[in-house]
User: Fold this.
Amino acid sequence: MTTNMIALVTGANKGIGYATARQLGERGMTVLVGARDATRGRDAEGKLRGDGVDARFVSLDVTDEASCAAAAELVEREYGHLDVLVNNAGIVRADGSALPSETTVATLREVYETNVFGVVAVTNAFLPLLRNAPAARIVNVSSEVGSIAVMTDPQGALFALTSVPYPSSKTALNMTTAMYAKELRDTPIKVNAANPGYCATDFNHNSGFRTAEQGAEVSVHLATLPADGPSGQLWGFQMDAGGGYGVLPW
Ligand SMILES: NC(=O)c1ccc[n+]([C@@H]2O[C@H](COP(=O)([O-])OP(=O)(O)OC[C@H]3O[C@@H](n4cnc5c(N)ncnc54)[C@H](OP(=O)(O)O)[C@@H]3O)[C@@H](O)[C@H]2O)c1
Assistant:
């Protein structure tokens, strides 16, 4: 089954992004496989096509505004609209023992370039195309470690974590999500943040207890919300609530 829907997933060459591309493709969408490395992107495109997904590699480094603009021009030229944008590309870095007092500004900048500035760059480059779609969905792949409420709960499972760069980048991403949702509240576009849960990928040397496919389910849910679905929420895996899916506190 094909739909005429076009989805772009950033960082789709592996991990949760790849699984998201596959699941959106299985729902009949044409999936644009955003990747910063052409070889890795084309390999992913080939694997997805082998599985019957209408996948197409799109060169996209989210930290490079010229790359974002070129990708948006390509999508404009070829399709004229974008139904789903999944801002999935993300990196994690820490200094020393991951204490605030050991954090370097260089590391903070590097993480924010991808996890925060990159999301704004990609979203703004594609917003005209998202507005051209009947009811676009934007999914920002965040994390429960970006939730100040979760991270400061003394009874919570994440209370021991102290790192600044990655968690605070996701906090900034959560606020970014909420503000885009506010700007777009009178349009059919919905903007939500996804919490995939701790998934085994290269990101964490495959130490996660969930699979990339399970993590992708969260992004796909938010990418396919019905017209009466929510906007401006952090939604996904709830570790402290016993592992179901639901809304997480900011
Ligand atoms: N895994 C988890 O437990 C977990 C939990 C919560 C949230 N998340 C979030 O889920 C998202 C995906 O993570 P993952 O676990 O799937 O990680 P991953 O396996 O390391 O994949 C990350 C993807 O992002 C891409 N990427 C990094 N920098 C990029 C850039 N500048 N431009 C374009 N693509 C870039 C990578 O491309 P290359 O192959 O070229 O490096 C790769 O495709 C991230 O936003 C992460 O923060 C993950």
Q: What stands out?
A: Strands lie at 6-9, 30-35, 55-59, 84-87, 137-141, 190-195, 234-238, 244-248. The pocket of NAP is lined by residues 10-11, 13-17, 36-37, 40, 60-63, 88-91, 114, 118, 141, 143, 196, 198-199, 201-204, 208 (CB under 6 Å). Residues 58 and 137 are 19 Å apart (CA to CA). The mean pLDDT is 97.
